[in-house]
Design brief:
The structure holds two protein chains of two kinds. Chain A is 0% helix and 51% strand. By secondary structure, chain A is mainly β. In chain A, the strands form three sheets. In chain A, strands 2, 5, 6, 10, 11 and 12 form a six-stranded mixed beta sheet that branches. In chain A, strands 3-9-8-7 form a four-stranded antiparallel beta sheet, with no helix packed on it. A two-stranded antiparallel ribbon of chain A has the order 1-4. In chain A, β8 and β9 form a beta hairpin. By secondary structure, chain B is an all-beta fold. Helices cover 0% and strands 48% of the residues of chain B. Chain B has no helices and eleven strands. In chain B, strands 2, 4, 5, 6, 9, 10 and 11 form a seven-stranded mixed beta sheet that branches. In chain B, strands 1-3-8-7 form a four-stranded antiparallel beta sheet, with no helix packed on it. In chain B, β7 and β8 form a beta hairpin. The termini of chain B are far apart. Classes of the chains: A mainly beta, B mainly beta. Chains A and B meet through β6, β10 and β11 of A and β4, β5 and β9 of B.
Chain lengths: 118, 115
């Protein structure tokens, strides 16, 4: 079974600052996928960024980037130039390959509540 | 286009009642997932469909939980003889193909409260 740990229940930073959310996971799988999802107060979960475990290059999406350390089983999210709209719950998630190497359910961490202060 | 929709948005049930929660995925999406999110927790995987086939139901907590997707589109999660511990938000997500890397698009959830 896989586990995902987010050790920061809540973080608060000033607008325009850079913030890093931590995530570690435990698995015996060699190939898998990692995701960061954002859940604003309206509760609809939105994908922020994703990473394939076999790719060494860290994924980036505009202001969002990850630091993927496979050996350490670490997958942190960096948000640059933070904006008020970034205020939300952030969930780190793991997906092992399912039947035939396809999709399977996500295993989520408990989340980090990120607050961007004006 | 329309996103994933779920109904009802809120459901209050008395302990012991049966409930049915509906998910309308994005049109044409092959994969459909159900998750249970307790208050203050991350979502927990319940079950996964690829078209009408239920490929993984390992997360269903008991045999009181049953899910179906008979025509490969709309899905229903049924909970029989509801218990207080079933109180949670039930999230549905869909993705375009069966590929593992695909983005899962989530619905707004159904908040179930069992009294």
């Amino acid at each position: 079974a896989q586990t995902v740990t987010q050790s920061q229940p809540e973080m608060s930073v000033q607008e325009a600052e850079t913030v890093t959310l931590s995530c570690t996971y435990d698995t015996s799988e060699s190939n898998y996928y990692l995701f960061w999802y954002k859940q604003p107060p309206s509760r609809q979960m939105i994908l922020v960024i994703r990473q394939e475990a076999y790719k060494q290059q860290n994924a980036t999406e505009n202001r969002f980037s990850v630091n993927f350390q496979k050996a350490a089983k670490s997958f942190s999210l960096k948000i640059s130039d933070s904006q008020l709209g970034d205020t939300a719950m952030y969930f780190c998630a793991f997906m092992k390959l399912g039947t035939g190497g396809g999709a399977d359910g996500l295993t989520f961490g408990k989340g980090t509540h990120l607050i961007i202060q004006p | 286009g329309a996103g994933v929709s779920q109904s009802p948005r809120y459901k209050v049930a008395k302990r012991g009642q049966d409930v049915a929660l509906r998910c309308d995925p994005i049109s044409g999406h092959v994969s459909l997932f159900w998750y249970q999110q307790a208050l203050g927790q991350g979502p927990e995987f319940l079950t996964y469909f690829q078209n009408e086939a239920q490929l993984d139901k390992s997360g269903l907590p008991s045999d009181r939980f049953f899910a179906e997707r008979p025509e490969g589109s709309v899905s229903t999660l049924k909970i029989q003889r509801t218990q207080q511990e079933d109180s949670a938000v039930y999230l549905c997500a869909s993705s375009l193909t069966s590929g593992a890397y695909n983005e899962q698009f989530f619905g707004p959830g159904t908040r179930l409260t069992v009294l």
